[in-house]
Amino acid sequence: MIETKNATPPQPGKIRDLQLTDLLDFCKNNGFALAVWRQPGKEIQGIIDTGNTHCQEIDLESSEPGYLFHPFSDKKIKHFIRAQIRFTVSDGTVAFDPYNKQQHKDMLRKISSSDSSSGLDKKMMIFEDHPVEQEKPFIELVKKAIKEIRQGHFQKVVPSRIKAIRIEGFDLKTVFQRLIKNYPNAFVSATFVPEAGLWIGASPEILVNTEGKRIFQTVALAGTQSYDGSRSLQDIAWTQKEIEEQAYVSRYIINCFKKIRLREFDEIGPKTIIAGKLIHLKTTFRVDMEAVNFPQLGTVMMKLLHPTSAVCGMPLETASAWLEKNEGYDREFFSGFLGPVNLNENTNLYVNLRCMKLIEDKAWVYAGAGVTEDSHPEKEWMETSIKMNTLLDVIH
Ligand SMILES: C=C(O[C@@H]1C=C(C(=O)O)C=C[C@H]1O)C(=O)O
Fold it and tell me: Which stretches make up the Chorismate-utilising enzyme C-terminal domain (predicted)?
């Protein structure tokens, strides 16, 4: 069994139970990178990297085990957190490599004796603040998008916005526990990179999943309605706008398969799925990599897929240029992707949605909404507000 369970309460010089929050402080104070995550139905896992996390191109199949943290823009710095130190978390308590008692003891000793006041914060980048959230500019942005879609410039675009808030007494352990409880179907994650801040999220959207050398999976997720749990999923009706919006994402994925001449894939859906207080339409695409003799499919598709039309638009280049010109802020890691690579033979990358960035007592929450020619600007505004509540509901 994990040793920390029977440990004595905090006493000077003694090893005590280590909470997720202590571990984050330890990493901040030492300038280490940390990733903690929970895939749906799985245990909480985490890793620490004590070195430089900048990375260039990544090859998923041959990569060492770690965790990829990729920004929305391909031009920005990408991070790969190597699995130098591994741990699991149960009831908020950390256990280092459960199979290696000595490593566990050594880590606890190091952390207990580390000086929590020695500041990493010096290492942190200073971020610009963002203007106080405003409904009008977002609605104007959506109106502009609709106008340009009607003029035939593109078919779909996903404008987003950022909301700055202050948080007092933030406790990672509590927030993480609430997220895993409230969002059982989400990829819940906390990613800390000294120069990027702490990012926390509960994403409903897989970008690339590979299981061993055999199974590849991705999804087309779009269309949003609020959901209070009272209706059966079979009774949910979707409008033409939502069906079309999700179909663009499916078409985009199929076009990526076409580019690499991949014809054999299973397509399941679209089905209605629950993501907290929201529901979406989801189509799952599955490929048997052995049957199609394509062992590098994970890496190839990761590069082709991102950014999908669930977070950017259709056609990609026009929508992306429009966002860069009109959105008015830097998405940083929002709508990028993140997740474990080659850990236990699997790679599980998710789109970084329903997320926030935290630096000291400041937080920034992000959300976007798919706009087509049939969009209603006020509804898209509401949709981004409900999406932001995924995080706002658990931090207060
Ligand atoms: C852009 C976001 O979500 C994406 C956009 C959706 C939509 O437009 O309906 C739905 C799910 C996600 O693919 C977000 O959560 O910020």
Answer: 136-387
